[in-house]
Specification:
The protein is mostly beta strands. Helix content is 2%, strand content 41%. The two termini are 13 Å apart.
Amino acid sequence: MGGAAPLLLRAASPNGRWVALCQSREDTDGDGQVGFELGARGEPKGDSLTTYLVRGAGLGEPIQELLDADPTGRWLLFTAGGRVHLLDDHTGARVDLSALGADAREDTSRELPHRAFSFDAKGSTLAYLRQPPGARGGTEALVLRDLPTGREQTLAPGRGSVYRLRLSADARWLVLQVLIDDTNGNGRLDWPSPVLPLTPEGPRSRRCRAPVMSYSVHPHRGDTVFTRVIPLQFPSGNDSPHGAHHGKPPGDKAARHDARPQREDALITPFGDSLLVRGAGGELLQAWAAGARRAPRELAPAACRARLIHADPERGALVTTCDHSEDERKIQGTRQSVWLINTTPSTPIRTPLGFTLAPIHTDSEAAARPERLLAFYPGNETTLLDLDTGALHPLAVGDLVLSTFEARALVRRADELWLAEVRPAARVGEPPTKPRVEWTRLSLTVDRAAEQLHQRHLSWVSPYLIDLRRGVALATLDHLRDDEHRLDVLALTDDGRALIPSSVDARGLPVGPLSWH
């Protein structure tokens, strides 16, 4: 897949059907050579990079940008010829979303997803922003597209102009960042980051860059951004992500009746059929859509100054920090205690977990994929929290948890790999609910500075491929080498294949063509 030249991988399908890569295949800078190198911020220098979408095998189709792909890999969004296309990789069918009025404008925040398109986690729904039909008059519209059927439902975003949208992983909420008023007084609504218009020719691909630890931002620029949320299910508890699944045609007023935008400037994250928000005094609250007729309830008091570490809406579980009281701070210092909050009962249950962490000042969003086991490092110790039981399982000092899947954790101990599996008690006389950790030594010695890649239940820790679902090492990839280097794995599929380059150049860049092993 791809040409015989250095490349940057943009994305790969989890089923191995396609890859998107960036390559220089022409001498565009006139120096007599074809190739590129990376600058200090990951920016390519040399010949211009083109993005190629390779489906199956071959050199691929040149496109402007790969904007996004749903987590299943079936649906792809890309730009070509100045237009946004939605591709069904299973059937090959394409939809010109620009012809449907899709807003293709981007800003310069290249580390963020596209501002106007968002998939849910199951690849069943696409949310996108539709521009007004003319330069004057008309209003923006939010569109929910049912991907398998192609049916669309439109929603009104409310007053102002949508800067960014995001569909929650379970497609229950649409979160909007909205410009409402001209707060900087220049007579127009300005985005926080500069606009990057889409042209038919297209600029040099801005997403063809290596990952870096620093990037440019534009603080305090533009007008004030407010947060607005739209519930995409009926407050009566209907599980449909939107009304089009109940015999109501897209655009039907009854289908949109309960999808009213509401201001939630203190939003932390959607949480199932509710929202986690910050109260005026700093308390952590659980709130519902206005039509649900349920008052917000307190999950953590203001004095706690709780910060969200992890949220699992399927289990109704939260892990947060909590500040100590003045007397406790004399002993604990500035470290924060860690709480497990069970939101399922009518009165939430808060359980201190008995360890502290260095101060955390920001909230993390809910994980797209619920995780049963969470790893914490309170000092030199390592501990696993089992969200199914609320039990803590201390590991050995210095253990590093590389990945988890269901009841198993892949642990690095010195230069060896181990599997830790949480099992219910099985010995005679023990309470059946008391869990224990069963250890399996994989007898695998890894590189001191091992490369890592994780895809659902699969982990590559150079040079080994481990299946956490089965609890076994599948293979060693140490034999995959060019003349001088062992070849790094660029991507993994759900069925255990690894994407490997043909070689590595003098600058450490992978060289095509790529192949699955």
